[in-house]
Amino acid sequence: MSLPQRFNLGIVGCGQMGTSILSGILNGEVKRQREDQPGWTVNHIFISVQSASSVDRLRNLLSQHLPRVTIYQSDNLATIQNSHVVILGCKPAQMHTILSETGMQEALESKILISILAGMDTKSTQEAIIANGHPAEQPESQVHVVRAMPNIAAREGASITVVASPARESDRDAVQVTRWLFNHVGKTQEIPECQFDLIGSLAGCTSAMFTVAIDGLLDQCVAGGFKRSEGLQVITQTLLGLAKLLEAGNHPAALREEVSSPGGSTIQGLLELERQGVRSAFASALGAAGERARELGRK
Predict the structure, then answer these.
(1) What is the CATH number of domain 205-298?
(2) CATH 1.10.3730.10 residue ranges in the chain?
(3) Strand partners of residue 147
(4) Which of 24, 120, 189, 224 could form a disulfide with 154 if both were Cys (CB 3.0 to 4.6 A apart)?
(5) How much is the mean pLDDT over the chain?
(6) Residues in domain Pyrroline-5-carboxylate reductase catalytic N-terminal (predicted)?
(7) Are 85 and 112 in contact (CB under 8 A)?
(8) Is the predicted pLDDT of residue 134 greater than 70, yes or no?
(9) Distance between CA 142 and CA 39 in Å, rounded?
């Protein structure tokens, strides 16, 4: 695989997640160029979306970047033909339709296709490219497929993106390019693909799960006479501080023990969480998200 130093990026499907990734990459590239950092450079970005309203939304959002961005309406083939690296960000149910378009296999040949679709493993993506449901009759695809899962914090440059280890040694360089690209929007971690549905859900879904806990805390703040907006400021800084403590290597259980004084308020709060089954609820929620990802892959 040979990737130009200055390469074109394509994005097929640019909803909330795709837009977050796009914004993060563009902002990261501006910073890289300002600091004159060595390495690959995203030269131009081609985007394909379905509706005219999506085209208008992206043009408004990306107004300052438009010289470097081309937005197509429902022209997936042109997006891929003009790109060296492609992020597939459509709905999982649309993958086979898009990848079986006339000329798509030729357009993707020897390129990197990064799938951020829940439940779709690299094998099923390769098979969808190879040919209209009859992969056994076709030679091995030369498309370098990489599976990745970022989260919504990509738009703030604070995502964790998990990337599946390659099944083929020929795809190793594609994984490195993928990690370089998603390091623009946070951090990356490589994991075995057999664990991807669960850990992809851990990376992609738990931010939304945490918001439920945050809302509960804010409801009690309001019930206690404190403004929701002010309570959110306290919680936000608390979470930032907790993240730094965890990043420094502190174990969650050790942190709980540190702040749980005998007879104090923290231990009473923790006991109530245990009585309400919050720990098992979070474990079950992650399990359910991972299982749903597997179900999407079987459809």
Answers:
(1) 1.10.3730.10
(2) 205-298
(3) 115
(4) 24
(5) 92
(6) 9-119
(7) yes
(8) no
(9) 25
> Which pLDDT tens digit goes with each residue over 205-261?
999 999 999 999 999 999 999 999 999 999 999 999 999 999 999 999 999 999 999
CA distances from 159 to 126, 187, 188 (A): 26, 6, 8
Residues 90 and 267 sit within 8 Å (Cβ to Cβ) = no
Residues of the chain with CATH 3.40.50.720: 6-191
Cβ contact 104:22 at 8 Å: no
Neighbouring C-alpha atoms within 13 Å toward the C-beta of 168: 15
- Domain 6-191: give its CATH code: 3.40.50.720
Contact 16, 53 (CB under 8 A): no
Residue 76 labeled ligand binder: yes
Q: Say what the pLDDT of residue 139 is.
A: 52
Which amino acid, 261? S
Q: What is the pLDDT of residue 29?
A: 81
